[in-house]
Amino acid sequence: MPRSVPLRRLLVALLLSCSVLVSTTACGSDDGNSSSSASSSASPTGTSSAEAQKFAKTRFVANAGLAAGATYQWIVKPYRAGKFKKGADGRTFALVKAGLAGGFAYNRLKAASENAKGDPLLSKAVAPLTAGIASLEGMATKLRKGEMGDGDIGAFESVINNIKDAGKSAGAEVEDKVPSASQLGG
Protein backbone atom coordinates (compact mmCIF):
# COMPACT_ATOMS: atom_id res chain seq x y z
CA MET A 1 0.00 0.00 0.00
CA PRO A 2 2.69 2.60 0.78
CA ARG A 3 4.25 1.95 -2.64
CA SER A 4 1.15 3.06 -4.58
CA VAL A 5 1.22 6.61 -3.26
CA PRO A 6 4.66 7.47 -4.70
CA LEU A 7 3.74 5.76 -7.97
CA ARG A 8 0.58 7.83 -8.22
CA ARG A 9 2.56 11.01 -7.56
CA LEU A 10 5.06 9.99 -10.20
CA LEU A 11 2.30 9.48 -12.75
CA VAL A 12 0.71 12.83 -11.93
CA ALA A 13 4.07 14.58 -12.25
CA LEU A 14 4.74 12.82 -15.54
CA LEU A 15 1.33 13.78 -16.93
CA LEU A 16 1.73 17.42 -15.87
CA SER A 17 5.19 17.72 -17.39
CA CYS A 18 3.97 16.14 -20.64
CA SER A 19 1.05 18.54 -20.82
CA VAL A 20 3.36 21.51 -20.29
CA LEU A 21 5.71 20.20 -22.95
CA VAL A 22 2.87 19.68 -25.41
CA SER A 23 1.40 23.12 -24.76
CA THR A 24 4.72 24.91 -25.23
CA THR A 25 5.55 23.06 -28.43
CA ALA A 26 2.06 23.73 -29.78
CA CYS A 27 2.65 27.46 -29.37
CA GLY A 28 6.02 27.39 -31.16
CA SER A 29 6.75 26.85 -34.81
CA ASP A 30 7.96 23.61 -36.37
CA ASP A 31 10.60 25.10 -38.64
CA GLY A 32 12.64 28.27 -38.68
CA ASN A 33 11.03 29.61 -41.85
CA SER A 34 7.45 29.80 -40.62
CA SER A 35 8.18 32.56 -38.11
CA SER A 36 9.92 34.69 -40.70
CA SER A 37 7.16 34.15 -43.24
CA ALA A 38 4.56 34.94 -40.60
CA SER A 39 6.30 38.16 -39.64
CA SER A 40 6.74 39.21 -43.24
CA SER A 41 3.10 38.50 -44.06
CA ALA A 42 1.91 40.23 -40.90
CA SER A 43 3.83 43.44 -41.53
CA PRO A 44 1.82 46.10 -43.32
CA THR A 45 3.56 46.70 -46.62
CA GLY A 46 1.17 48.96 -48.47
CA THR A 47 -0.04 51.22 -45.68
CA SER A 48 0.38 54.92 -45.88
CA SER A 49 1.85 56.95 -43.05
CA ALA A 50 -1.65 58.18 -42.19
CA GLU A 51 -2.86 54.60 -41.71
CA ALA A 52 0.20 53.75 -39.63
CA GLN A 53 -0.46 56.78 -37.44
CA LYS A 54 -4.09 55.76 -37.04
CA PHE A 55 -3.08 52.27 -35.97
CA ALA A 56 -0.50 53.70 -33.56
CA LYS A 57 -3.20 55.78 -31.90
CA THR A 58 -5.57 52.80 -31.79
CA ARG A 59 -2.99 50.56 -30.16
CA PHE A 60 -2.02 53.36 -27.76
CA VAL A 61 -5.66 53.85 -26.70
CA ALA A 62 -6.18 50.10 -26.23
CA ASN A 63 -3.01 49.57 -24.16
CA ALA A 64 -3.43 52.70 -22.07
CA GLY A 65 -7.11 51.89 -21.49
CA LEU A 66 -6.27 48.40 -20.24
CA ALA A 67 -3.58 49.81 -17.93
CA ALA A 68 -5.98 52.42 -16.58
CA GLY A 69 -8.76 49.88 -16.06
CA ALA A 70 -6.51 47.40 -14.26
CA THR A 71 -5.07 50.12 -12.04
CA TYR A 72 -8.45 51.45 -11.01
CA GLN A 73 -10.23 48.09 -10.63
CA TRP A 74 -7.57 46.09 -8.78
CA ILE A 75 -5.30 48.68 -7.15
CA VAL A 76 -7.01 52.03 -6.46
CA LYS A 77 -10.53 50.80 -5.66
CA PRO A 78 -9.46 48.05 -3.20
CA TYR A 79 -6.94 50.41 -1.58
CA ARG A 80 -9.61 53.03 -0.96
CA ALA A 81 -11.93 50.31 0.39
CA GLY A 82 -9.25 49.33 2.94
CA LYS A 83 -8.64 45.84 1.49
CA PHE A 84 -4.85 46.22 1.82
CA LYS A 85 -4.85 46.98 5.56
CA LYS A 86 -3.61 44.30 7.95
CA GLY A 87 -6.46 42.15 9.19
CA ALA A 88 -8.83 43.10 6.37
CA ASP A 89 -11.07 40.38 4.93
CA GLY A 90 -9.60 39.03 1.70
CA ARG A 91 -6.37 41.00 2.11
CA THR A 92 -4.05 38.33 0.72
CA PHE A 93 -6.18 37.76 -2.38
CA ALA A 94 -6.52 41.52 -2.92
CA LEU A 95 -2.73 41.96 -2.65
CA VAL A 96 -2.06 39.16 -5.13
CA LYS A 97 -4.55 40.64 -7.60
CA ALA A 98 -3.05 44.10 -7.07
CA GLY A 99 0.44 42.73 -7.72
CA LEU A 100 -0.70 41.09 -10.94
CA ALA A 101 -2.56 44.24 -11.96
CA GLY A 102 0.52 46.35 -11.21
CA GLY A 103 2.73 44.21 -13.42
CA PHE A 104 0.06 44.16 -16.13
CA ALA A 105 -0.41 47.94 -15.98
CA TYR A 106 3.35 48.54 -16.17
CA ASN A 107 3.59 46.23 -19.19
CA ARG A 108 0.67 47.91 -20.98
CA LEU A 109 2.00 51.41 -20.21
CA LYS A 110 5.36 50.49 -21.73
CA ALA A 111 3.55 49.12 -24.78
CA ALA A 112 1.46 52.30 -25.00
CA SER A 113 4.56 54.49 -24.91
CA GLU A 114 6.06 52.38 -27.72
CA ASN A 115 2.81 52.71 -29.70
CA ALA A 116 2.93 56.47 -29.24
CA LYS A 117 6.21 56.60 -31.16
CA GLY A 118 4.27 55.80 -34.34
CA ASP A 119 2.38 59.11 -34.24
CA PRO A 120 4.37 62.39 -34.15
CA LEU A 121 1.83 64.34 -32.09
CA LEU A 122 1.27 61.51 -29.64
CA SER A 123 5.01 60.90 -29.40
CA LYS A 124 5.63 64.49 -28.31
CA ALA A 125 2.83 64.29 -25.74
CA VAL A 126 3.95 61.00 -24.20
CA ALA A 127 7.75 61.49 -24.30
CA PRO A 128 7.94 63.35 -20.95
CA LEU A 129 6.02 60.53 -19.24
CA THR A 130 8.50 57.73 -19.90
CA ALA A 131 10.38 58.41 -16.65
CA GLY A 132 7.11 58.14 -14.71
CA ILE A 133 6.33 54.82 -16.39
CA ALA A 134 9.83 53.53 -15.63
CA SER A 135 9.38 54.46 -11.95
CA LEU A 136 6.51 51.95 -11.71
CA GLU A 137 8.74 48.98 -12.57
CA GLY A 138 9.14 47.57 -9.05
CA MET A 139 5.67 48.56 -7.90
CA ALA A 140 4.07 45.15 -8.60
CA THR A 141 6.39 43.48 -6.11
CA LYS A 142 5.64 46.11 -3.48
CA LEU A 143 1.92 45.63 -4.05
CA ARG A 144 2.14 41.84 -3.78
CA LYS A 145 4.10 42.07 -0.53
CA GLY A 146 1.76 44.70 0.93
CA GLU A 147 4.57 47.27 1.28
CA MET A 148 2.90 50.17 -0.52
CA GLY A 149 1.45 53.36 0.84
CA ASP A 150 -0.53 56.39 -0.23
CA GLY A 151 2.40 57.71 -2.27
CA ASP A 152 2.74 54.49 -4.26
CA ILE A 153 -0.95 54.33 -5.08
CA GLY A 154 -0.82 58.04 -5.94
CA ALA A 155 2.11 57.39 -8.30
CA PHE A 156 0.06 54.84 -10.23
CA GLU A 157 -2.91 57.20 -10.41
CA SER A 158 -0.69 60.10 -11.46
CA VAL A 159 1.00 58.21 -14.30
CA ILE A 160 -2.35 56.88 -15.55
CA ASN A 161 -3.93 60.34 -15.44
CA ASN A 162 -0.92 61.88 -17.23
CA ILE A 163 -1.12 59.22 -19.96
CA LYS A 164 -4.85 59.89 -20.36
CA ASP A 165 -4.21 63.65 -20.59
CA ALA A 166 -1.39 63.16 -23.11
CA GLY A 167 -3.62 60.97 -25.25
CA LYS A 168 -6.48 63.46 -25.07
CA SER A 169 -4.21 66.33 -26.10
CA ALA A 170 -3.06 64.31 -29.12
CA GLY A 171 -6.58 63.36 -30.16
CA ALA A 172 -6.50 59.82 -28.75
CA GLU A 173 -8.87 59.82 -25.79
CA VAL A 174 -8.25 56.93 -23.38
CA GLU A 175 -11.13 55.26 -21.53
CA ASP A 176 -10.73 52.70 -18.75
CA LYS A 177 -11.10 49.10 -19.95
CA VAL A 178 -10.99 46.53 -17.18
CA PRO A 179 -9.05 43.46 -18.29
CA SER A 180 -10.25 40.01 -17.30
CA ALA A 181 -8.47 38.09 -14.57
CA SER A 182 -7.02 35.74 -17.18
CA GLN A 183 -5.47 38.71 -19.01
CA LEU A 184 -3.73 39.77 -15.79
CA GLY A 185 -2.05 36.40 -15.39
CA GLY A 186 -0.67 36.54 -18.92
Major beta-sheet overview: none
Radius of gyration: 21 Å
Shape: globular
The averaged pLDDT comes out at 79
Q: How much helicity do the residues have?
A: over 70%
What's the SSE pattern? HHHHHHHHH
Decide which structural class fits the backbone.
Answer: mainly alpha
Number of separate strands: 0
Distance between the termini: 41 Å
Strand content: under 5%
* Uncertain segments: 25-46
Q: Helix count, per DSSP?
A: 9
Oligomer: single chain
Task: Report what the structure shows.
The chain has 186 residues and is mainly alpha-helical. The protein has a domain at 64-114 and 126-160. 74% of the residues lie in helices and 0% in strands. The protein has helices at 4-27, 32-42, 49-80, 91-116, 120-126, 130-134, 139-145, 150-169, 181-185. The two termini are 41 Å apart. Residues 1-28 form the signal peptide.
Reconstruct the topology from this structure.
Blueprint: H1 4-27, H2 32-42, H3 49-80, H4 91-116, H5 120-126, H6 130-134, H7 139-145, H8 150-169, H9 181-185
Helix pairs in contact: 3-4, 3-8, 4-7
Provide a concise account of the structure shown.
Helix content is 74%, strand content 0%. The protein has helices at residues 4-27, 32-42, 49-80, 91-116, 120-126, 130-134, 139-145, 150-169, 181-185. The model is unreliable at 25-46 (pLDDT under 50).
Could you list some keywords that capture this structure?
signal; 186 residues
